[in-house]
Every structure is written in C-alpha cells, then in structure tokens.
Amino acid sequence: MGHKHSVGPRHKYDMVELPRDRVAIVTGASAGIGYETAKNLAIMGAKVILACRNEEKTRKAMSRMREEYEHYKSVFSDSAKHEELQLYYMHLDLASLQSTHTFVQQFLAMGWPLHILICNAGIAVNNISITEDHHETMFQTNYLSHFLIIEHLLPVLETSGPDVRIILVSSIGHYNAHFNRDDIENLTLKKDINLSLYGTTKLYQVMQMYKLAEKLKQKNITNIGVFALHPGYVQTEIARDLRPLLKVLNKIGSSLKIATDSVKGAYTTLYCAVSPDLKGQCGYYNNCRPERCSGKARNKALQDIVWDYTFKCLQDHLPKHSESVNNNNSSSSEQTTQLMATAALTAADVQPNQL
Ligand SMILES: NC(=O)c1ccc[n+]([C@@H]2O[C@H](COP(=O)([O-])OP(=O)(O)OC[C@H]3O[C@@H](n4cnc5c(N)ncnc54)[C@H](OP(=O)(O)O)[C@@H]3O)[C@@H](O)[C@H]2O)c1
C-alpha cells in the first residue's frame, strides 16, 4: 500500500507551560534539531539535561541558548515565565557502551524523575566503521545505545508521573532501509553509498517504538507514550561526513530552501514531547501529524528479529527487568510470509532530503 508523506509548510506545535520540576533528557543537544528541542523544552519550563559527547561544544551551546532566551524574554514577555533556563550538561558518547552505561548510572544516582526522554542524537556516514564494542558505528550511535538507555531508565519513567514520553528521532530514510535478517548491523558491507544503511538504523528505531509500546501495553503500563518521528529535511550538521556528491546535493537543497531550519526541524519532536493530546499514545509522526510508516517497520516478525538481535548485542549490559522473550504469537504463518517477502527487499536510492 502506498503512503503519503506530509509536504508543504511545517506545522507548529503549541507551546505549553511545563512545571519547573519536569525533567527532560535530550541526546545530541549540542547542535541542530536537538539544540532547538532542548532550548524550547527549557523555555517551556522544564529542567533539561543535554546528554552530549563534546562538553566544550555543549557548554557553548548552553550559553547560546541562554543568550537567545534573554532576547526571547524581551520579545515575548508574556510567555517567558521564568528568569532562567534550567540546563544541565551530562557526558554521553553513544559510540561507547561504557560511556552509555556511565551516563545511565550517573543519572540514576541523581535520584531525579524523568518525564521526557528524547533519543535525538544521530550520525549519517558513507564509510562504515566499527566501534570499540565491535558494532557498526551508525547502528550503535543511532539505535543500540539509545535502546540501552531506554531499558535502564524504564523503571524511573514508569514511576515519574501520569504523562511520560519516550521519543525516537527517526527519519523518512527508514522507508529505504536495507534489511538483511542475517546481517542486522550490515557488518559485511563496507560502504553506505546511498544512505540505505543509515535508513536501517532509523528503521530499527521505528520498530523499537512499536515493540516497546506493545510490551508496555502487555504490562499494563499506561503512563508512558512512545513515539518515533521524521523531523523534516533540516539544514543541520548531519551532512558533514557524507561523501562529496551528497554534500553538494545537500547544499543545493539548502540554497533552494527545500530544507527547513533547525527551529522548524524541532517542531515534531516538541509536539510529541508536550502535546496534551498525545498523552499515553504511540505512533510514527511527521510534520506534527501521525503518518503511516513503512511496512517493514510495522512487520511484527521483523520487529522480533531485530529485538532479539539487540538483546544478544546487549546481553552483558541490560538490566534484569528487560525482556527478550516475546510472548505473543509472532511466528504465525502470515507474519512469516511477510518476513520472507520484506527481507528480500533491496534498498532504493536515497537523496539527502531523505536523511
Ligand atoms: N537533518 C535532517 O534533515 C534529518 C532528517 C531526518 C532525521 N534526522 C535525525 O535527526 C536527529 C538529529 O540530527 P541533526 O540533523 O540535528 O544533526 P546534527 O546537527 O549533526 O546533530 C546531531 C547531534 O548528535 C550528536 N552525536 C553524534 N554522535 C554522537 C555520539 N556518538 N554520542 C553522543 N552524541 C552524538 C552530535 O554531537 P556533536 O555535536 O558532538 O557532533 C549532535 O549533537 C538525528 O537522529 C538524525 O538522524 C535529521
């Protein structure tokens, strides 16, 4: 079945007033979409933890947010309710499981609640490399380490109040994902010529959203909403490590104003994070609206394969409460047929506007 992507002007979310003790974590908040997301959550009143790998860059970003808030206060004196933004830096390098663990342990040791967890950080590269943990770097950065964070923080999220959200910043690129059930990380491939391996990591995020929502439902946990989203084609630093041709196309996209800016690029994330209408919901969003994601992403048999593989990758790192076993009937013949069909699909070409 075909799908329609939301096109045209970017829809804006409605700002809300967040209690001063509402806690949000935004990964990759030092630049781009994460920067605008963190800043606006703080403007709305939340305590925001910027979970980033480069302290100097992030602290500069925090200073810039504070300066921008001073300007905001002078222009929007009615809606600027607070004297200062509550911003906190925490170190997190998603390309290292050790660093990810340390981040989780440090956060848990603080004893804070957690109301909004935004898994935003991501990379797009053409050259495949392997991390210190022997995983493909995009797979680990975009997907695996975020998975680990979520699993460790679930008990805190579960007990932090009636309206808690997990947001996975995925991409339209997930429609063009290369999926090989025998090589989930694409470790046998050397290059991501058309960004379809990047799309694979983004596909896994959408699958995780569905699987996690299903598991929460099975456990009757109703206070946590789970969302995956496409932020739009946004002019950010993400194209910096792409091969020259894609960089040039990206520049053209930017100069033709096809790409939007980071301010608008954060709208859908912020909508999923704060819209009162989305309490306890789950789904895939684009342009502040629900959208049909790819068939592969919705395929339960494929979701199970990826979920189980993820557990194998993280077996020495996951908390005891994590569940690898799938107790629904995921091996029905219908799903198996679907699995065979979708696993055989090959990647289509992806342009930078499909990052
Ligand atoms: N831009 C688009 O058109 C577009 C489209 C679809 C989806 N997305 C998604 O949107 C999200 C944000 O991307 P963006 O466009 O805002 O890109 P960006 O400007 O490059 O920002 C990416 C952020 O991720 C951080 N990051 C990268 N590797 C990390 C690591 N190992 N550990 C911790 N943080 C790390 C970066 O930190 P440093 O500052 O230290 O590099 C930066 O803060 C990504 O998940 C991306 O896939 C973007």
TrEMBL record:
SUPFAM superfamilies (alphabetical): NAD(P)-binding Rossmann-fold domains
UniProtKB keywords: Oxidoreductase
Top-level lineage group: Eukaryota
Record bears the keyword Oxidoreductase: yes
UniProt cross-references to Pfam families, sorted A to Z: adh_short (PF00106)
Any one GO molecular-function label of the UniProt entry: oxidoreductase activity
Family, as annotated: Belongs to the short-chain dehydrogenases/reductases (SDR) family.
PANTHER family in the cross-refs: RETINOL DEHYDROGENASE, SHORT-CHAIN DEHYDROGENASE_REDUCTASE FAMILY PROTEIN
Official protein name in the record: Uncharacterized protein
Provenance organism: Owenia fusiformis (Polychaete worm)
